[in-house]
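Researcher: Next entry in the queue.
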Amino acid sequence: MTTNSLPDRMLALARFIDEHVDESLPLARLAREANVSPYHLQRSFKAALGVSPKAYQSNARLKTLKSSLRAGDRVSSAIIDAGFGSTSRVYEQVDGGLGMTPSSYRAGGEGETIHYAVRGSALGTMLMAATARGVCFVHLGGNETTLFEALRTEYPRALLVHSNAEQSPELDVWIDALNQHLSDGAVRPRDILLDLRGTAFQLRVWRFLLSIKDGDVVSYTEAAVGINQPLAARAAASACGANNVAVLVPCHRVLRGDGALGGYRWGVERKRALLDRERALAR
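Model: Structure for this entry, 283 residues:
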C-alpha cells in the first residue's frame, strides 16, 4: 500500500479485505499488507474502523452473502462464495446482522410478516413498520408510494400488511405517539419496542444515540468516543446514515465537529426542524 498516514492505510486495508472477502486473511497477512506489526494492526484498524479486522471481514462476508441471496443464488453456493464455508459458520461469525435465516433472506424476508401504517405528520408523510419484535422502519417524506417502495426494497418478499388499529393495535398506538411528538412537541415516546437490524458496530452507535437526552446534541466524533472508538467518527457517521428508524433512533442529534448540521437521510430541513423544536422545548 502506498498511502502514508496510518488511518489511510487502515482504510486501504479495509478495501483489500472487501476485495478478498472469500479468502483466509490471518492477521500476519493483513499486517504485511498494511506494513505494520500485527499488534499495531489490531489497535489501529479498530481505532479507524470501529471493529477488529476479523469482525470487519465477517461483516464484509455478510454483505456478500446478502447480495448473493438477493440475486437468487442457491443458499449453499452463496455461503461458500462469501467465504463462510458452512451454514453453521454464518451464525458463528455474524452477530445478528442477517436478522433471519439465510434461506429466508434469500427469499427477501419471505415468511416474515411486517405490518405498516402511514400518517401525515408535521415533517411530511410518515411510514412506520413493525415486526413481531418491534418497530423496524420509520421513514419520512415523499408520498405513500415512495415510502412503501423503500420498505419493499428493504424487505422485498416479506408479507407487508397495511394495517389498521384492529389488525395491529400496538403499531397504531406507536405511530400515533410518534406523530403527536412531531406535531406538538410531546415527549419523545420511549415505550416503543424497536427491532434494530444492522452490523455490530451500527447497533452500538444506534444504542448510543438512544442515550442522548432530549434537547442535547453530539458531534460524530463524540458519538465515536461514546462507543469507545474515538477514531471512528467516519464510521459513526455512516452508521447514522444507515439508520432506518427516523426520530426514534435520534440520528438527527449528531452534528459535524464545527457545529454544522451535516447530512440527514430524510433531508437537512427536517433535521433542522427537529433540533429547533427540541431546543425550544429544552429552554
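Model: Residues 113-184 form a domain with the Double Stranded RNA Binding Domain fold (CATH 3.30.160.70).
Researcher: Noted, moving on.
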